[in-house]
Write a structure and sequence with these properties.
The strands form 5 sheets. A 6-stranded antiparallel β-sheet has the order 3-2-1-6-5-4. It has a 5-stranded antiparallel β-sheet with strand order 8-7-11-10-9, sandwiched between helices. The chain has a 5-stranded mixed β-sheet with strand order 13-15-16-18-17, with helices on one face. Helix 8 runs antiparallel to helix 9. Strand 5 and strand 6 form a beta hairpin. With about 700 residues, it is an alpha+beta fold. Helices cover about 40% and strands about 20% of the residues.
Length: about 700
C-alpha cells in the first residue's frame, strides 16, 4: 500500500473545502439521490460522495456503507487530489497503491473502484463521487462517463448551497439594518461579488427598481439600462412570465418568500436558466420593499439534462439487454429441449450398457447447460433490479425434502454419507418463496458434495423464534461437509461472481462460480443473510438465515409428484389422456410426442395458436400444452381467446399448461395472467414434463395423471 501524496496546493485546497461549508453538514436528499443514481447506473453495491479533509475521508452521502468516515491515509480518492481525471481501479489486490490497504483486506473489501473527482470552479479537488465493488471489475466507458456527469451535478449543488447561504445571510442584514432601497446599490454589488449572483430591489412606495451590475450583465444589458416594474419581466420567456409575476405579487401582498427556477432570454437572444429568490422587507409591520437575487444556473441545468440523457441511455441499454437475454434464453432453450428431451426418451428404450452410458452423458451435459443458462439469467435479473420473489404458502418439510432427495443421489454416487436433520420446530406451513429457498439449499448442498471427495455432507434445518413476539420466525439452513475447505483469503471473495476456491477449481470440479453469488442475492432479497466458516482440508459450514411468516391457516398445496417415473401409467380400462400440443418447432413436436405417447397419451399437434382454436372446435381434450412464441397467433393470445370463449359460452375450464422456452419470471407471470394454469419451462425431461402436467391437472380438479412415481 502506498500512502497518498499531499498535493502542492493542499493549504489552499483545504481552505476552499472549508469555505464550501459542506464538511459535517446534515444529510440532504439531493446528494443522496445522486449516490443512489450512481449505484443504479453502474450496478455497484456501494456509492459514495467522499470528501478529503486534513486527516480523514468524510462521506457527504453513502449507499451500501454504514460508516461515515475513514482515515485519510486509507482513502482511494486521496490519490485524485492532484488530477481531474477519474481514478479507475479494476482490482485493488493487484494495484501497488492499494494492496494491503485495510479497506481492501477488511470490510468493506474494496476490490474495484471508480471515482470521478469533485472539482470546484478554481480547480480544487474536494474528493470524488465513487462506485465500489467487492469483486474485481472492468469498469466500462459508460460507467466512467455517468460518474463524471454526476460529479458535475455534485459541484453545482455545493456551489448552489454556498450561494444560497450567503444570500440568506446578506438578506438578513438588509432586513435588520432597514437599509433604504435607493441606497442599497453598494450592498447589492457586494452580494454579486461574494455569491456571484445578481441582486435587485423594488420599493413599494416609489415603485423604483434597482438592479446590480451583475444582474445587468446576466441579461446582456448595458450598465445604463434602467429597469422598471414593466420591463423587468420582459426577459422571462412567455410561458414562465405569468408564474413569476404571480409569485412576486404574493410576496408583496402576503410576505411569502419566493424561490423558483425559470428561463430567461437575454438582450442578445441567449436562453439561460436562472434561480430567482425574493424576500419582503418590513417597516412597522408593513412590507415596504422586496429584495432578491438572480443566479445563472444554466450549467447545472445542462448537467442535469445530461444526467437524464445518460439515465435514459442506460435504461435503453438495460431494456436492450433484457430483450437480448430473453431472446437468447428462448433460442438456446429450444434446441436444448431437443437434446434433453430426446435423450430422456431414448433412455427409456432398450439400450446396450455402453449406449445407455452415452445417453446418460448427453443428458448430464444438457442439464449442466440448462443450469448454467438459468444461473446467468438469475444474475442478469439481480443486476437489472428486476428480480422479484414470489411469496406464497409452502410446506417447509416438503420443500426441503424435495431438494434434499435430488442431492442424495449425487452424494451416493461419490459414496458420501448424507443426512438431513430437522429441529423440533422445523415443520408446518410458511409464507415465502419456496422455490427460491429450495434453490438456495440445492446450491449450497451441491457445492458441499462437489468439493467433498470422502466423508459426509449434512443438512440441518431449524426454525428460530425471535425474542420479540412481533418479529418473524427465522429459517436456519446449515449445510456442513468434510470437504476440501478454503482459507481466509478466499473467504473474503467467496460470494463473488465466477469465483472458485483455486485456479484449478473450474477444471477439477466444474461449475460457473455463480451459485453462491445467486444464493447471497436471494437471501438478501428475502431480508436474510448467508455466512460461511471453513478450515482447509477439514471442511466447511454454510449458514443461511431467512425470515419467514407462519401460515395461520394451512393452505392446500398441490401434490408434488416424485422424481422418478415409469412407463406404465394408465390402467387397461382408462381412456388415453387426450392432449392438444400447440407447438411450431418440428423437433419439439417430436420430443413431446416421443415422451407422451409411450405413456398412453393421445397427442394431437397444432402448429400455432390459430390452428389450436380451430382444432378445439372439432375435438375434445383433457389438456392443452401451449407453446408461448409462435407465428400467426402466439400462445398468450391463444390462451386469452380460449378463456374468453369459455366465459362467453359458459364452457368448462380447459386445463392449459404453457410449455415454453420463455422461462424468465416475467414470461411465467405473463402466461399465468393470460389464463394458463401452469408454466413448464423448456428444456423438459420426462420427469419435468410429467410433473408439470400432473400439477396442472390436479390444480384444475382432474383425477387424471400421466406417469407414476416409482
Amino acid at each position: 500500500m502506498l500512502r497518498p501524496p499531499l498535493p502542492a496546493n493542499e493549504a489552499q485546497r483545504l481552505a476552499a473545502l472549508q469555505a464550501a461549508r459542506i464538511l459535517d453538514s446534515a444529510q440532504e436528499e439531493a446528494f443522496d439521490a445522486i449516490t443512489r443514481c450512481a449505484a443504479t447506473l453502474t450496478g455497484a453495491p456501494i456509492a459514495l460522495i467522499s470528501l478529503i479533509d486534513s486527516d480523514r475521508q468524510w462521506f457527504k452521502s453513502r449507499v451500501g456503507l454504514d460508516v461515515s468516515e475513514t482515515p485519510r491515509e486509507y482513502a482511494f480518492c486521496a490519490h485524485t487530489l492532484e488530477q481531474t481525471e477519474p481514478l479507475i481501479v479494476p482490482d485493488s489486490s493487484k494495484d501497488a497503491r492499494f494492496c494491503g490497504n485495510p479497506l481492501v483486506e477488511n470490510a468493506p473489501f474494496v476490490r474495484a473502484y471508480a471515482g470521478a473527482p469533485i472539482v470546484d470552479a478554481q480547480g480544487y479537488v474536494y474528493g470524488t463521487l465513487c462506485a465500489i465493488s467487492n469483486e474485481p471489475r472492468l469498469w466500462s466507458r459508460q460507467d466512467v462517463e455517468q460518474l463524471s456527469a454526476l460529479a458535475r451535478v455534485v459541484v453545482s449543488l455545493i456551489a448552489q448551497n454556498v450561494a444560497t447561504q450567503q444570500i440568506q445571510e446578506l438578506a438578513k442584514q438588509v432586513q435588520a439594518l432597514k437599509i433604504d432601497a435607493l441606497g442599497s446599490q453598494a450592498l447589492l454589488e457586494d452580494v454579486s461579488e461574494i455569491a456571484r449572483v445578481g441582486g435587485w430591489s423594488y420599493d413599494m412606495a416609489s415603485k423604483k427598481t434597482v438592479w446590480s451590475a451583475q444582474a445587468l450583465r446576466m441579461h446582456d444589458l448595458d450598465e445604463g439600462f434602467q429597469p422598471t416594474s414593466e420591463n423587468a419581466y420582459d426577459h422571462f420567456i412567455e410561458r414562465e412570465r405569468g408564474r413569476v409575476i404571480s409569485a412576486l405579487r404574493d410576496c408583496a401582498s402576503t410576505g411569502e418568500d419566493v424561490d423558483l427556477e425559470t428561463e430567461i432570454v437575454t438582450a442578445l437572444g441567449i436562453h439561460k436558466w436562472v434561480r430567482m429568490t425574493a424576500r419582503p422587507v418590513k417597516h412597522n409591520d408593513r412590507i415596504d420593499r422586496i429584495i432578491g437575487s438572480i443566479q445563472d444556473i444554466s450549467d447545472r441545468v445542462r448537467t442535469q439534462q445530461e444526467l437524464r440523457d445518460l439515465a435514459a441511455a442506460a435504461q435503453g441499454a438495460n431494456r436492450a439487454k433484457d430483450e437480448f437475454l430473453a431472446n437468447m434464453s428462448h433460442e438456446i432453450r429450444t434446441p436444448l429441449n431437443g437434446v434433453i428431451g430426446l435423450a430422456g426418451a431414448l433412455s427409456r428404450t432398450d439400450l446396450a450398457d455402453h449406449q445407455r452410458e452415452m445417453v446418460g452423458l448427453i443428458q448430464a451435459s444438457g442439464v449442466t447447460l440448462d443450469r448454467l443458462l438459468s444461473d446467468l439469467l438469475d444474475v442478469a435479473r439481480v443486476e437489472s433490479g428486476k428480480f422479484q420473489l414470489k411469496i406464497a404458502p409452502f410446506d417447509l418439510r416438503e420443500t426441503i425434502s424435495n431438494a434434499a432427495q435430488l442431492m442424495r443421489g449425487r452424494a451416493a454416487e461419490k459414496h458420501l454419507e448424507f443426512s438431513v436433520v430437522y429441529g423440533p420446530c422445523a415443520q408446518g406451513s410458511f409464507m415465502g418463496d419456496g422455490v427460491r429457498i429450495r434453490q438456495i439449499l440445492s446450491n449450497l448442498t451441491a457445492n458441499a458434495i462437489k468439493f467433498t471427495e470422502r466423508g459426509w455432507v449434512r443438512i440441518q434445518i431449524e426454525i428460530e423464534d425471535g425474542d420479540d413476539p412481533a418479529s418473524p420466525p427465522v429459517l436456519l439452513i446449515e449445510v456442513s461437509d468434510s470437504g476440501m475447505g478454503f482459507d481466509d483469503a478466499f473467504a473474503r471473495r467467496l460470494f463473488g461472481r465466477f469465483e472458485q476456491a483455486d485456479a484449478s477449481a473450474t477444471r477439477n470440479f466444474g461449475g460457473s462460480g455463480l451459485g453462491l453469488a445467486i444464493c447471497l442475492a436471494l437471501a438478501k432479497a428475502m431480508g436474510g443473510e448467508i455466512s460461511a466458516t471453513s478450515q482447509p482440508g477439514i471442511g466447511s459450514v454454510f449458514r443461511a438465515r431467512l425470515p419467514l411468516d407462519y401460515v395461520r391457516v394451512r393452505a392446500a398445496l398441490p401434490a408434488v409428484p416424485g422424481d422418478q417415473w415409469t412407463l406404465a401409467t394408465q390402467s387397461a380400462k382408462a381412456p388415453p389422456l387426450r392432449i392438444l400440443l400447440v407447438e411450431d418447432h418440428p423437433i419439439n413436436q417430436q420430443v413431446a410426442c416421443l415422451i407422451l405417447k409411450p405413456c398412453g397419451a393421445a397427442v394431437t399437434v397444432a402448429n400455432n395458436g390459430q390452428e389450436a382454436l380451430e382444432t378445439l372446435e372439432g375435438g375434445q381434450f383433457d389438456l392443452i400444452l401451449m407453446d408461448m412464441q409462435m407465428p400467426v397467433m402466439d400462445g398468450v393470445a391463444a390462451t386469452r381467446a380460449i378463456r374468453a370463449k369459455e366465459a362467453a359460452q359458459s364452457l368448462a375450464h380447459m386445463p392449459i399448461a404453457m410449455l415454453s422456452a420463455n422461462a424468465m419470471r416475467e414470461h411465467i407471470e405473463l402466461s399465468l395472467k393470460a389464463g394458463a394454469d401452469g408454466h413448464i419451462s423448456k428444456p423438459v425431461s420426462p420427469t419435468s414434463l410429467f410433473a408439470g402436467i400432473n400439477e396442472v391437472l390436479a390444480r384444475c380438479g382432474s383425477k387424471r395423471v400421466i406417469g407414476q412415481a416409482a
